[in-house]
Amino acid sequence: MPRLSEVIAVLETLWPAERAESWDAVGTVVGEPDQEVTRVLFAVDPVQETVDEAVKLGADLLVTHHPLYLRGTTTVAASTFKGRVVHTLIKNDVALHVAHTNADTADPGVSDALAGALDLRVVRPLVPDPTDPEGRRGLGRVCELDHPLTVRELAARAAGRLPATAQGIRVAGDPEALVRTVAVSGGSGDSLFDQVRAAGVDAFLTADLRHHPASEFMAARAHSPLALLDAAHWATEWPWCELAAAQLDEISDRHGWGLRVHVSKTVTDPWTAHAASSATDISGAPN
Ligand SMILES: [Zn+2]
């Protein structure tokens, strides 16, 4: 059985902490280095539901994409939401390790997993990491489709392949436009609009798109058919859990560790229901 410190050393080779953004908080949050690890759970969010899932599963290590504490704190009292998480982890001997922006830019990383879930062929990073001489690491991915799809078909594919959420997929642009190339970025992607425009792709699939940035992006795209596809943040990052679990599984086999590696089945998207509009479309109404 490997010790926690050995498993974490391996995770650090996949997602080195020094490749995280300066504002990020990655690495081990809770854990006893000498503790033996037999079972690992991967999840997007370090929330009570996924921690409870780890405890129920008998996992010794929970690896999440999102940090528990992004800023400093003065309390881990169990009366606080995050303090309760810390207490549950320690009381049940479950370690917590975070790979966030260092997993986003890794090769393979979060957006490779998103592209893979949609059967998109990755061509290059959308924003290459300047410190990578091979140009394989970076934020987002520019991808090609083996066969062109309409925006509507691509949205349907995303809705069918990503885990189910109340939101589904929202589309901006002509649903019948043909898509041959698509940029993808797991998580919030509206800071990447300039790079998406420069990439000359037909569509951009990401999450958390807001009214003003999306409106301005659509207005500025001139005559390009560029469409936006907006999925739930959690759903765009969940495929990484499967990719990361497979990576650790393979390493465990190589070391003869016999780790049991699991992927969380808990939906931690905060949105739980969706009502399609049923009011009259006001655009055709007489003034
Ligand atoms: Zn995220």
TrEMBL record:
GO CC aspect terms: cytoplasm
Single GO term (MF): metal ion binding
InterPro entries xref list: DUF34/NIF3 (IPR002678), DUF34/NIF3_sf (IPR036069)
Binding site for a divalent metal cation: 65-66, 104, 233, 237
Protein name: GTP cyclohydrolase 1 type 2 homolog
Annotated PANTHER family: GTP CYCLOHYDROLASE 1 TYPE 2 HOMOLOG, NGG1 INTERACTING FACTOR 3
Oligomer status and interactors: Homohexamer.
Pfam families listed in its UniProt record: DUF34_NIF3
Family listed: Belongs to the GTP cyclohydrolase I type 2/NIF3 family.
Keywords: Metal-binding
Domain of life: Bacteria
